[in-house]
Amino acid sequence: xxxxxxxxxxxxxxxxxxxxxxxxYAESGLLALNSYENRxxxxxxxxxLRYVVKFYRPQRWSTAQILEEHQFAFELAEAExxxxxxxxxxxxxxxxxxxxxxxxxxxRGGRPLEIDDDEQLCQLGRFLGQLHQLGGAKDFLHRPKLxxxxxxxxxxxxxxxxxxxxxxxxxxxxxxLQQIELLCQQQYQPKRTIRCHGxxxxxxxxxxxxxxxxxxxxxxxxxxMQDLWMLLGGEAPEQRIRLELLLDEYQQFCDFDFAELKxxxxxxxxxxxxxxxxxxxxxVDPAFPLHFPWFNTEAYWQQQLVVLxxxxxxxxQPSLQMHPFDY
Length: 327
Fold this sequence. Notes:
- About 40% of the residues lie in helices and about 10% in strands.
- The chain has helices spanning about 10-20, 65-80, 120-135, 150-160, 165-185, 235-250, 265-280, 285-290, 300-315, and strands spanning about 30, 40-45, 50-55, 95, 100-105, 110, 195, 205, 210-215, 220.
């Protein structure tokens, strides 16, 4: 069932009042940043510094899960791994106000990381190795573990239940999703999971003298490959080159299990299906029809049928190999 919550009551005045309640007095207006799952704004305060305030979507994460996200960020920052961690106000990082929970972060300037820049990619590999070394020291207690059931099984059930497509399209979609779920169950069998960033794609990576991570909102237990595969591109030669660059520095801090190469296409399929269900689940939020007008159309679903067929083909191919002697 899709959550009935939306952010319609989160007015600019309420946001400013919430910030002032905890000692952050905005001198500028609120600049909305690119976030659909939560509501995130930048402002300049009377101390001359810029901050980012993030209002968490209720009903998504429990308080314990959010606090565990924050604790992970604090551990990373204390280990001098470049991540933007929330600020503490009188010992609290998760701040309640009129039914909402929010956090305030220092605003850190930077430009999008250039994934095609070999030097930046090598630096990123170093910090991912450090992140995974620390992430593997203990497990999350409250954050979820990446699973085929959640990302494909539950997503398939939601999509078919909502039925935002014609009967014929729905039948085709169900067949394809069943094939993908079966293939992913066979292929996604990680030997080990660690605390991962969870959503490590170029949009969550920035660069200012060195790479740095933002947005740990999707951190969870997952295989290390979850934080690597979205940086590799789509075809084997490009994947191999980028992964070699990443691992050159990564393995200075953390061992990499090359058996996880077999997880790449299953992870890609899981993200594809989960993304469809995410849009369907959030469609009651007015921001989603506004920013994703192409969703919920027959043309969109026909396109997804083609994409899923292509992904089934990819799942049926041999997994990525780094060198001939890896076969």
